[in-house]
Amino acid sequence: MAGKPGSLYWMNHSDYKLNVEVIFENDTVWIEGKANIKYYNESPDSLKMIVLRSYQDMMADAALRNWYILPQNETRQVKYSDLLIDDDTIPSTVLTQNRTSTNLLVRLDEPLKSGNSINMQLSWKYYMHPNINIRQGVYENNAVFIAYWYPQVAVYDDIYGWDMTDYVGIVEFYNDFNNYDVSITLPAGYLVWAGGVLQNPSEVYSPELKKKVDLALHSDDVIKIITKDDLSADNGKMGKATWKFKAENTPDFTFAASKTHLWDASGIEVEDGRRVLVSSVYPDSSKHYHKAAGFARDAIEYLSFESPGVPYPWPSMTVFNCGEGGGGMESPMMVNNGDQNLETFADEVVFHEISHSYLPFFTGTNERRFAWMDEGWATYQQMKWRDDPESPDAGSSEAGYRMTAGTSHDLPLMISTYAIFDGQASSFSSYTHASQAFITIEDQLGLEKMNKAWKIYTERWHHKHPSPWDLFAIFEEVAGYDLEWLFLPWYYEFKYQDLELTSVDTGTGEIIVSNTGGLPLPVYLVLVYEDGTVKKIHKKPEVFKASDKVIIKIDKTEELGSVKLGHPWFFESDDTNNTWKKK
């Protein structure tokens, strides 16, 4: 495999025209929508059916899921109606009977031939339970973050055909790159932020608000767009307002709305002549998100100019703080973050979620089969950006590693993510194991070549669907040699991270380090001599290519006082055998 799209590479896509109303009835929020979808078959195949995703069915009482929901909080399936295909009415039984847990299977009377398109129209309605906030939800003061809310055409690709994976909770997403024209209607007085470009600012912004947004876009400083005083002045608006957004060549569309959130924003130039609006939207009670516009701006600057060194590809980024505890969730141009207790953790979560702007939203990896491709990337980039292996976040990750490594929760990365129903195993694989694999590959290649590989990968596969083998091929392309000896144990085999300082022989001047866990790791030794002299030794992971032991020769052995094996970036299941002291 060459690690690049071939001359016959293809990918399907859709144009979505979505009209949605958000209806607030006391503590209940209803979503009512109508979709007009034009689906383009760019594949060489004739398609006999269309698969539509119905994500909200995951919360239904009879749904298959691995995310626990209290029985009293279960909902009903999304109600679909008025399905038309190329102006032909489709029987309602199609919308009630031809369903998996979260998919609608629409079988076509005539196959959709290669190079042709099909038009679909349908309406839908569901309610958002106030006690179910899985990646999205209804929050204090009826603020909402709305995701996975419209009937979405599943991916049909050249490797697996239709993606029939049900959304069961842990497993995430895999989308084509589509165009969106979205109209959002909700009560006047709400502000809306979305993963697209606002088309009617003069209709929904006051002149003063529009002026502030324009000022923020062109400022390197953080501008206070909505303050507590602004909220007081806007209370009491009546009627409805419709917000219109467009987004091009993006894998999804989400939005947030609130009457009570504050709004800070700044701009950043990511390439000549192109600036990005970076916003933080948060409740007044938020612990740290009054600083998040700056956090987000720093993240975009790092990703654009350091690693992967590709200009941030979208026109905006909004960090929405829901005001509740927990981590964060990414979507194109939008993230929905909880309220972390420590400022450093809030900063870390903001960076992690924004880094997903590249994977899977710019370079379209398959999260449902290989979540490690984007979560491992984001965690690895987070580690490199923080550049502090002694930070509390790094320490807690290593503690988690020791609890899981080598247990039944420690599975090879190439096991499809959707097949792992164990939350601990899925998280360990996608975040910890995967990021450790990437940091190990970097140690083997060197930082300059690793950054080059990420840049090639991101640019070569943007708005396309790479496989893991494409990424492996690019690593080998940049390295200039075969890396199968590294990929096999790290991605395919049941191995774990553990090195042992087996012996220190001051007579022969030999130090033996054993790879007891089986995963090739770099060797980092710190030698401290009796006169206070410190010597550091580093060996790349390749020292374990042909053997599970490495012999390292040293000098001045009679003056050696202590030896320590290991490096904070590289976790081990047991570090009690990593030190030697002269007796």
Question: What does this molecule look like?
Answer:
The chain has about 575 residues and is an alpha+beta fold. Among the domains are: about 10-175, Immunoglobulin-like; about 395-490, no CATH class; about 500-580. The mean pLDDT is about 95.
Radius of gyration: 26 Å
Beta-strand percentage range: 25-35%
Apparent shape: globular
Give the uncertain stretches in residue-range form. Answer: none
Write the layout of secondary structure elements.
Elements: E1 13-25, E2 28-40, E3 47-53, E4 79-85, E5 88-89, H1 93-97, E6 103-112, E7 117-128, E8 137-138, E9 144-146, E10 152-153, E11 156-157, E12 161-162, E13 178-187, E14 191-194, E15 197-198, H2 201-204, H3 207-217, E16 223-226, H4 228-234, E17 240-250, E18 255-258, E19 262-271, E20 274-282, H5 292-305, E21 316-321, E22 328-331, E23 334-337, H6 343-355, H7 372-386, H8 392-404, H9 423-445, H10 447-460, H11 468-479, H12 484-492, E24 499-505, E25 510-515, E26 523-529, E27 534-539, E28 549-553, E29 560-565, E30 579-581
Parallel strand pairs: 1-13, 20-21, 21-23
Antiparallel strand pairs: 1-2, 2-7, 3-6, 3-10, 4-5, 4-7, 8-9, 9-18, 11-12, 13-17, 14-18, 15-17, 16-19, 19-20, 22-23, 24-25, 25-28, 26-27, 26-29, 29-30
Helix pairs in contact: 5-6, 6-7, 7-9, 8-9, 9-10, 10-11
